């Protein structure tokens, strides 16, 4: 017979006695085993419980510390002892799993509110490992102990430990919502959790708000609890991700480190990183920045040095080139490094033995229900104890009332048991009980109107010591009994009324908040994607200059020294000489403007278009620098030149939303041919990069000035030949951006409007001629006229004065800067210029060299850090008189 594969198989071994062999499907068996394993990992290892926010390993470590007595008011003990106690009694895993968990709960950069108070080397935010557990020590932190408060009052269930030698709590009472406060991370089988930490005080307020109003909305909760609060500070950009995980349990947050710009003694700037995103290794971040700089990565080539000056606080200094733009470098750091990271929120936790993705309201509701159960169980426990004590005190009072009889019974008894039996047979009438003011709490002990003692009462009476029979001790018993009866009634009232239970939860949480809450560390920014410039650069006064050839720059105000009237001035910038050798230079400063670095600038062109840029976008250069072409800043059309600039101060509301363009007021326009128009500021909220139409302009006309007004101001138009007209802007109805406007003044054929000023009762009108003469005149000398008239004289123009070049609304404390076509500048106080009549020539303000003449004048920011003083001195500080360009 031929061999077959089966003929080579060994015969099946006989089945041992008492054993049963079953045929199983291997795939099905592996599936079931994997499901059992995965459920064990999910429930008993990787995910936190929604009630106390702890994983089993964390809970066992804290409970082992509680059992060891290492409380916040006790001395620290070796971590090795804690790990050994945990491993031997509750958590049968290796110390390499237990010790890192203990360390994590003690690291202030990992936990928003650490649960363990560590002593020794517990690692660092740079990723340094902790010292061995035989060197480090620990004890419970106050909030760690608070999680286990009232655990001995039957508030939670205890379950057998892994070897049935003792019991451990299945959950902690959790006197504060630890899941939301400290968050948690964990990777299970097929699922993971990643819950951000939040501010303790805000979470408690949110819990109390949901108790008061179970139907509270997410919007209302966000006003109380605006978002996560990471232990490393940093900033969360955008509220959409926060709202998303509040509503659904899942969302993505953009987290950025905090960076600012500092100026060194030498006038150079340096970028300083003071906070890094949660979970980012600081050393790795610094190493990555250095690597990108060494690789000459575009955008970071202006970094010349890196210094890590961090101690317990982060401080990484980046030195940059003198002409570098810090904002560009910072944005590239966010783009290329972990200085900006994402935090993917997945609020997954164990709820009633099952994994569940929780919304914010779900998490709050689960905690409230847990604390409600804790308060009820604690109240029942205390009621049980109070009733047991009241029963003993009742027995004492009965014994004291029948002291002689009880002593006789005890003395006549041969043994304790005999005395016990006789006392159990003792009966007392209701009348006798009521005469001694003893509250009868057990009606079932009345038999035929007589009261019998319980076994517990008899045992307590037999254990009485002689000193307890003194009159003072009797009074103490009676006082304790009455107090205990009040306590019992109060506990019963708590159990009977739900509102009292919820009130206790709120009261206890508010006590925790008062004692342990700390200020918010993480800032929530409204705009997602763009960094708020205010967080990068200090708000400082600067001078903006724009030349006829379109060269623009900003220079710090300190570069211009204050001079007296009639001085020679300083060189404000270097201009190019005329290629033909003529007396007039080829380029000269045409506009000079004062602003602050956080502001917006509106650039109005002669053709009636407007462009908007931040002051920080303008190149920062020295006083003598020529500037850079405005073509690099604005997308100007070939025929356009800048006619007016207005500073719009950056504004945010209480929620840090940008409300700059929601400010009240109008933009009031004036053209060379005397046309005027006003348009609401809010119509310029969405200016495109390429600009938009601000005013319709007729052929041959051009915009000469724009002011920011309140809507009911009075304006003065000043012409080149020294004429002026004052009228109320109410005579000009608000118009849309493309409108052409109406007549403001009737001009002579050879005249044109050169300036516009806004009337202020406590100010004067400063008028300056081309030859350096100027004067101030009270607005009272300018009578109000109807719009469209020829006006009256404001300055007597002669060959000595030259034509009028500019006019400003000024006060005595103001300062002005005048600049000539050759680049000479002088800064002077207005109070040095006399106030004289309209029909005069004025006095010398600046000494001019032969062939030079005044080109423009502008106000200057006062050197003050106070916002009120800066707003008063800055042009376009807000709607109202004199707040123009």
Q: Could you walk me through the main structural features you see in this protein, from its secondary elements to its overall organization?
A:
The protein is α+β, with helices and mostly antiparallel strands. It has four domains: 120 residues, Topoisomerase II, domain 5, CATH 3.90.199.10; 81 residues, Gyrase A, domain 2, CATH 3.30.1360.40; 124 residues, Topoisomerase, domain 3 (Orthogonal Bundle), CATH 1.10.268; 335 residues, Neuraminidase, CATH 2.120.10.90. Helices cover 28% and strands 24% of the residues. The protein is built from 19 helices and 44 strands. Strands 14-9-8-20 form a four-stranded mixed beta sheet. Strands 10-11-13-12 form a four-stranded antiparallel beta sheet, covered by helices on one side. It has a four-stranded antiparallel beta sheet with strand order 24-21-22-27, with no helix packed on it. Helix 7 crosses helix 12 and helix 17 packs across helix 18. The protein starts with 25 loop residues before the first helix and ends in a 12-residue tail after the last helix. The C terminus is likely disordered. Keywords: ATP-binding, Coiled coil, Cytoplasm, DNA-binding, Isomerase, Nucleotide-binding, Topoisomerase. It catalyses: ATP-dependent breakage, passage and rejoining of double-stranded DNA. It is found in: Cytoplasm. It is an enzyme of class 5 (isomerase). Belongs to the type II topoisomerase GyrA/ParC subunit family.
């Amino acid at each position: 017979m031929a061999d077959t594969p089966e003929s080579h198989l060994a015969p099946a071994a006989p089945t041992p006695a008492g054993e049963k062999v079953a045929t199983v499907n291997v795939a099905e068996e592996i599936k079931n085993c994997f499901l059992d394993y995965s459920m064990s990992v999910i429930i008993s290892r990787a995910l936190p419980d929604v009630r106390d926010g702890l994983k089993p390993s964390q809970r066992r470590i804290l409970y082992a510390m509680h059992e060891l007595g290492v409380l916040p008011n006790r001395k620290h003990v070796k971590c090795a002892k804690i790990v050994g106690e945990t491993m031997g009694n509750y958590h049968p895993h290796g110390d390499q799993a237990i010790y890192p968990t203990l360390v994590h709960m003690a690291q202030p950069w990992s936990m928003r509110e650490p649960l363990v108070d560590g002593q020794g080397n517990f690692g660092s935010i740079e990723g340094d490992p902790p010292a061995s557990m035989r060197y480090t020590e620990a004890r419970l932190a106050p909030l760690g102990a608070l999680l286990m408060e009232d655990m001995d009052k039957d508030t939670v269930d205890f379950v057998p430990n892994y070897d049935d030698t003792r019991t451990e709590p299945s959950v902690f009472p959790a006197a504060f919502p630890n899941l939301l406060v400290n968050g948690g991370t964990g990777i299970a089988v097929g699922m993971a959790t990643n819950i951000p930490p939040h501010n303790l005080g805000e979470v408690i307020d949110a819990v109390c708000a949901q108790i008061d109003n179970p139907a509270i909305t997410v919007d209302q909760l966000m006003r109380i609890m605006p978002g996560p609060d990471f232990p490393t500070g940093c900033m969360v950009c955008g509220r959409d991700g926060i709202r998303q995980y509040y509503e659904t349990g899942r969302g993505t947050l953009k987290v950025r480190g905090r960076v600012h710009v500092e100026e060194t003694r030498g006038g150079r700037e340096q970028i300083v990183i003071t906070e890094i995103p949660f979970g980012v290794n600081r050393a790795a971040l610094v190493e990555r920045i250095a690597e990108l700089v060494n690789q000459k990565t575009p955008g970071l080539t202006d970094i010349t040095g890196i210094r890590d000056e961090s101690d317990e606080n982060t401080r990484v200094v980046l030195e940059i080139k003198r002409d570098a733009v810090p904002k560009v470098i910072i944005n590239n750091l966010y783009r290329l490094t972990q200085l900006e990271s994402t935090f993917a929120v997945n609020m997954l936790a164990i709820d009633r033995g099952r994994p569940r993705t929780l919304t914010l309201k779900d998490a709050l509701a689960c905690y409230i229900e847990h604390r409600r159960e804790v308060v009820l169980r604690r109240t029942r426990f205390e009621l049980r104890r109070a009733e047991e004590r009241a029963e003993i005190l009742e027995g004492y009072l009965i014994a004291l009332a029948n002291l002689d009889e009880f002593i006789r019974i005890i003395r006549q008894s041969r043994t304790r048991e005999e005395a016990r039996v006789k006392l159990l047979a003792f009966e007392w009438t209701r009348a006798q009980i009521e005469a001694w003011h003893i509250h009868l709490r057990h009606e079932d002990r009345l038999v035929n109107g007589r009261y019998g003692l319980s076994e517990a009462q008899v045992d307590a009476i037999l254990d009485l010591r002689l000193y307890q029979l003194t009159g003072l001790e009797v009074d103490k018993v009676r006082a304790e009994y009455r107090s205990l009866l009040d306590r019992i009634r109060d506990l019963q009232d708590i159990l009977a009324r739900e509102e009292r239970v919820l009130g206790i939860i709120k009261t206890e949480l508010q006590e925790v908040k008062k004692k342990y809450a700390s200020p918010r560390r993480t800032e929530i920014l409204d705009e997602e994607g763009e960094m708020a410039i205010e967080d990068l650069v200090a708000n400082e006064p600067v001078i903006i200059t724009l030349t006829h050839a379109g060269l623009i720059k900003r220079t710090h105000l300190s570069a211009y020294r204050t001079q007296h009237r009639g001085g020679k001035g300083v060189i404000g910038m270097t201009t190019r000489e005329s290629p033909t050798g003529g007396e007039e230079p080829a380029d000269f400063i045409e506009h000079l403007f004062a602003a602050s670095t956080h502001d917006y600038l509106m650039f109005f062109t002669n053709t009636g278009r407007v462009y908007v840029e931040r002051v920080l976008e303008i190149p920062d250069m020295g006083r003598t620098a020529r500037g850079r072409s405005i073509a690099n800043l604005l997308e100007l059309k070939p025929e356009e030149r800048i006619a007016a600039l207005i500073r719009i101060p950056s504004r945010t509301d209480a929620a840090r939303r940008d409300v700059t363009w929601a400010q009240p007021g109008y933009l009031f326009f004036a053209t060379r041919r005397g046309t005027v128009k006003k348009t609401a500021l809010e119509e310029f909220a969405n200016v495109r990069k390429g600009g938009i139409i601000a005013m319709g302009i007729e052929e041959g006309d051009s915009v000469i000035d724009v002011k920011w007004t309140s809507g009911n101001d009075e304006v003065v138009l000043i012409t080149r030949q020294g004429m002026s007209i004052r009228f109320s802007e109410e005579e000009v109805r608000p118009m849309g951006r493309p409108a052409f406007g109406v007549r403001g003044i009737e001009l002579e054929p050879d005249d044109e409007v050169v300036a516009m000023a806004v009337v202020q009762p406590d100010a004067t009108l400063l008028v300056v001629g081309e030859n350096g003469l100027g004067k101030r005149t009270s607005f009272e000398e300018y009578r109000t006229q109807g719009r469209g008239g020829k006006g009256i004289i404001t300055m007597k123009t002669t060959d000595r004065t030259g034509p009028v070049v500019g006019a400003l609304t000024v006060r005595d404390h103001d300062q002005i800067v005048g600049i000539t076509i050759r680049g000479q500048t002088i800064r002077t106080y207005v109070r040095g210029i006399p106030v004289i009549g309209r029909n005069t020539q004025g006095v010398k303000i600046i000494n001019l060299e032969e062939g030079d003449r005044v080109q423009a004048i502008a106000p200057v920011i006062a050197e003050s850090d106070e916002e009120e003083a800066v707003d008063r001195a800055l042009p376009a500080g807000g709607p109202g008189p004199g707040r123009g360009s």
